[in-house]
Design a protein that fits this description.
With 265 residues, this protein is α/β, with parallel strands linked by helices. Strand 1, helix 1 and strand 2 form a beta-alpha-beta unit. It has one domain: NAD(P)-binding Rossmann-like Domain (Rossmann fold, 3-Layer(aba) Sandwich). The two termini are 30 Å apart. The strands form two sheets. Strands 3-2-1-4-5-6-9 form a seven-stranded parallel sheet, with helices on both faces. Strands 7-8 form a two-stranded parallel ribbon. It has ten helices and nine strands. The longest helix has 21 residues.
Length: 265
C-alpha cells in the first residue's frame, strides 16, 4: 500500500491523519470539498464532491488504498444523509472497484449499533441497531463493504469509531473515547496489515471502561496506547439521562425525542 487516498481530509480525523501519516507512504492524496492547507512533499490535494461519480473516480485513479472519511459526520436530514453518506459511499466503493484499488478503510460509527443496551458489552458480531439516520448510513456502508469484499475481492476494514477528541468530555466518553494518537495508529495498522477480506473494528482507545469487544484489533496489530480513565475524576458527574443513558449510542438516541440535532458523537 504505497498510494493512499483520504476522503473527507479537511475534517477533524482527516486533519489528524494528514499529520500522522506524513512520511510513511510514498504518496498521500487528500480529497475534500472544503479548503485545505497547502501540502508537503509526496502529498496531493484534490477537490471532489462524493455525489459526483466522475469526480470520485478521477480522484481514485492510481490509488492502492482509500481511507473513506468523507460525508456528514453527525445526524442530519435524510436528504443530506442520502446525498453524502449513501450515494457518496456507494460512489467510493464502486470507483474503488473500477480503479483496481486493493483496500478500502471505511469510517463507520458506533452509532451503527447504538440501540444496544449500554449495560451489555457488545462485540463486532452484534446485529445492527442504528440510533439515527446517520447510524443507518453507517450500517449501509458496512453492508456495502461486505458486498465489495465478497463479490469483488477488495480488502475492506470497517471502523466503528467512538468519540474522537483530544480528550474525553463527559462520562460516556470514558468508555467510547479514541485519542488522536490511537486513531492514527488504528488507520496505519489497517493500511499496513497483511491481506484480509473483511474486518470490523471498534475505533476506541485502551479505556478501562470500554464496553466494546474488539477481537480483530489483534489481527491487524492495533494496540491502543491511551486510556480515558486518566480523565475520570473530572468527568464522572457529567452523566447522561433518559434514553441517552440506556443505550450505547448515548445522546443520539434522544435526538428525535428532544427535537435537537447536535454536533455530538
Amino acid at each position: 500500500m504505497n498510494r493512499i487516498l483520504i476522503t473527507g481530509a479537511a475534517g477533524a480525523i482527516g486533519s489528524t491523519l494528514r499529520t500522522g501519516l506524513r512520511g510513511h507512504y510514498p504518496l498521500l492524496r487528500f480529497s475534500d470539498i472544503k479548503e485545505m492547507l497547502p501540502v508537503g512533499p509526496d502529498e496531493e490535494l484534490v477537490s471532489a464532491d462524493l455525489h459526483d461519480y466522475a469526480a470520485v473516480k478521477a480522484v481514485m485513479t492510481g490509488m492502492d488504498c482509500v481511507v473513506h472519511l468523507g460525508g456528514i459526520p453527525r445526524e442530519a436530514s435524510w436528504q443530506d444523509i442520502l446525498a453524502a453518506n449513501i450515494i457518496g459511499t456507494y460512489n467510493v466503493f464502486e470507483a474503488a472497484r473500477e480503479c483496481g484499488v486493493k483496500r478500502v478503510i471505511f469510517a463507520s460509527s458506533n452509532h451503527a449499533v447504538g440501540y444496544h443496551r449500554a449495560a451489555q458489552a457488545i462485540g463486532i458480531d452484534v446485529e445492527p441497531r442504528p440510533d439515527s439516520r446517520y447510524g443507518v448510513s453507517k450500517v449501509y456502508g458496512e453492508a456495502l463493504g461486505r458486498l465489495y469484499a465478497d463479490k469483488h475481492g477488495i480488502s475492506i476494514a470497517c471502523l466503528r469509531i467512538g468519540s474522537f477528541r483530544e480528550k474525553p468530555t463527559d462520562a460516556r466518553q470514558l468508555s467510547t473515547w479514541i485519542s488522536p494518537r490511537d486513531m492514527v495508529q488504528l488507520v496505519r495498522c489497517c493500511i499496513d496489515a497483511p491481506d484480509f477480506n473483511y474486518l470490523t473494528l471498534y475505533g476506541v482507545s485502551n479505556n478501562t471502561r470500554s464496553r466494546w469487544k474488539n477481537p480483530h484489533a489483534a489481527r491487524i496489530g492495533y494496540v491502543p496506547q491511551d486510556n480515558a480513565e486518566a480523565y475520570a475524576a473530572a468527568l464522572e458527574q457529567k452523566t447522561d439521562t433518559g434514553a441517552a443513558a440506556e443505550f450505547h449510542g448515548g445522546a443520539f438516541c434522544d435526538l428525535e425525542l428532544t427535537n435537537k440535532i447536535n454536533n455530538i458523537d
